Amino acid sequence: MAGPDYSLKDLRALDALLRDRHVSQAANRLGMSQPAMSMTLKRLRAVFDDPLLIRQGNKHVLTDVARGLHERVQILIREMEGLVDDSGGFDPLRSRRTFTLILTDYIDAILIPSLQQRFRDLAPEVRLRIVGPDPFRLARVFGEGSVDLTVSYFPDAPGDLISRRMFSDRMVCLARHGNPAISGELTLARFCNLDHVAIEPAEATMYRAVLDESLAKLNLVRRVAISKPDFVGVPFLLERSDLVATMPERLARLFTAKFDLVTFSPPMDLPPLDIQMMWHKSTHLSPAHVWLRDQVIQVCRQQSPGTDGD
Q1: Domain limits of the chain?
Q2: Is the CB of residue 237 less than 8 Å from the CB of residue 261?
Q3: 54 φ, ψ to 5°?
Q4: Do 209 and 200 touch, CB atoms closer than 8 A?
Q5: 206-265 tens-digit pLDDT
Q6: What is the pLDDT of residue 203?
Q7: Which CATH number fits domain 89-165+278-303: 3.40.190.10, 2.120.10.30, 3.40.30.10, 3.20.20.370?
Q8: CA nearest 44: which of 32, 56, 53?
Q9: CA geometry: angle at 217 spanning 213 and 218, to 5°?
Q10: Can 8-73 and 171-271 be said to share one CATH topology?
């Protein structure tokens, strides 16, 4: 894309069109009128010599050219926003940049509601974009600049990332109230024979490994009835079955407040979960990223007085 009219506004419009695949929705996202967005799409189609969006039935789909553009457009937006913000210091009240965080639904549930409140009060035009974990491409996506930070339990972080411990959590077990499988004395042998739900975010095993590696040291293996890529569906499953799950306590407490579930300790000691905030070394001194990390630290301090972030 070239020409004297090329601007950050054009990139944002293109990004919104590629995200929403709908002119009116893209216009609403950016606070533009529908006719203005239609004119922008017409101009972009001429620039790329491609329709970008084509109608298929009652919806629009991206062309091959558009699909190839989307990730590059997001990277360009981040780079241009960074130039604007970092050249004169970062002003959260005036900035319109988007911060992208990699989070599992576990961290999303306990962090983002409070973080979004801070953004609403301190940086009303700044947007948060949450993407799911991709542990096998973690170093690459940070190196490309397509994400800003992650907060995660990740014991083996790539070397190009800087990490800071935010808080510790511990693994507890969760089951429906009245589940007969957990009545009476729960020995290790009985525990292993229960029907377990194992969680593997993006096929990564770090959460289930906390339990499974501890059992392996005792030459024990639990029965895994179901493996899932996320935590969010687990309480619905537990409430209607005799399954059990082992998960971080902070998330389990959120579930017991909303569902007829109970927590209990596994019949063995498990290592703690040290939750880290991680970011690429290239953004370490960026004023915008320093501000973002401070907001995460403040939220973690509020939720966990006396834990890290100092």
Answers
A1: 8-73, 89-165+278-303, 171-271
A2: no
A3: -130, 145
A4: no
A5: 888 999 999 999 999 999 999 999 999 999 999 999 999 999 999 999 999 999 999 999
A6: 67
A7: 3.40.190.10
A8: 53
A9: 120
A10: no
Contact (Cβ atoms closer than 8 angstroms) between residue 276 and residue 283: no
Helix ranges, the chain (H): 8-20, 23-30, 34-48, 64-87, 105-122, 138-144, 188-193, 206-216, 234-239, 249-258, 287-303
Predicted model pTM:
0.73
The rounded distance, in Å, linking the Cα atoms of 27 and 34 is 6
What's the gap between Cα 117 and its chain centre?
A: 17
Which residue from 119, 161, 131 is spatially nearest to 291, judged by alpha carbons?
119
Q: How many residues does the chain have?
A: 310
Scan for tokens 């969006």, then name that residue.
Answer: 53
Query: CA 22 → CA 57, 96, 118, 188, 227, distances in Å?
Result: 13, 22, 30, 55, 36
Give me the CATH code for the 171-271 domain, please: 3.40.190.10
Cα 70–Cα 72–Cα 74 angle in degrees, nearest 5: 70
- Per DSSP, what are the bridge partners of residue 227? 198
